Amino acid sequence: MSNATAGATLGTAAATLTIVDNEVAKPGTFTLDQAAYTVAEGAGKMTFTVNRTSGTDATVVVPYTVSPGTALAPSDYTGTLSGTLSFASSETTHSFDVTIVDDAVVESSETFTVKIAVPAGCRSRYTCIGNDYRQRCWGAKTRNLRI
User: Fold this and answer.
1) Rounded to a whole number, what is the distance in angstroms from the first to the last CA of the chain?
2) Chain segment 53-91, per-residue pLDDT in tens
3) pTM
4) What is the pLDDT of residue 75?
5) Nearest 5°: CA angle at 39, between 34 and 40?
6) Backbone angles phi and psi of 42, in degrees to 5
7) CB-CB contact of 55 with 90 (8 Å)
8) Three-state SS across 71-101?
9) Among 119, 54, 114, 53, which Cα is nearest to 86's?
């Protein structure tokens, strides 16, 4: 409609329609594979696996950290003590290793903490913000390792 006839005038002559997407991305829930870990001092390394469930619709980067408890780096454990695990769309597991130091010191069992944190794009413990929708995300998880 561009030209009115017979002396008529036009009001709103054009309109925009927005189609709202009704599919909600599900980036998933991320957790360490065990609630607690135990490893012998002579084992050489401990592998920590992060599992992704309840959705794999997006690429998500999950940060992790290893923090001392009674076990201390580098005398009891070494390795990449902080980093990220990059989950591509449809990937469900990633792992990282911590080297366990086999020393000659007689000592009791020691612990350190492994934590996965809220990934980039998540503004709170359980909510991620996408383009125009909310996505379920995951909370920070902490696990101790006894050596």
Assistant:
1) 78
2) 888 888 888 888 898 988 899 999 999 999 999 988 899
3) 0.70
4) 93
5) 170
6) -85, 5
7) no
8) CCCCCCEECCCEEEEEECCCCCEEEEEEEEC
9) 119
Q: Tell me which residue has tokens 């902490």.
A: 142
The DSSP code for 51 is E
DSSP state of 43: G
Residues 6+ apart with CB under 8 A from 40: 100, 147
With contact defined as beta carbons under 8 Å apart, do 70 and 111 qualify? yes
Q: Which of 5, 6, 61 is nearest to 28 (CA)?
A: 61
Distance CA 103, CA 89 (A): 41
Distance from CA of residue 102 to its chain's centroid? 31
Q: Other C-beta atoms within 10 Å of 41: how many?
A: 17
pLDDT of residue 132: 31
| Angstrom distance (rounded) from CA 65 to CA 73 | 13
**List of residues 6+ apart from 39 with CB closer than 8 A:** 46, 100, 145, 146, 147
Residue 6: phi and psi, rounded to 5, are 60, 35
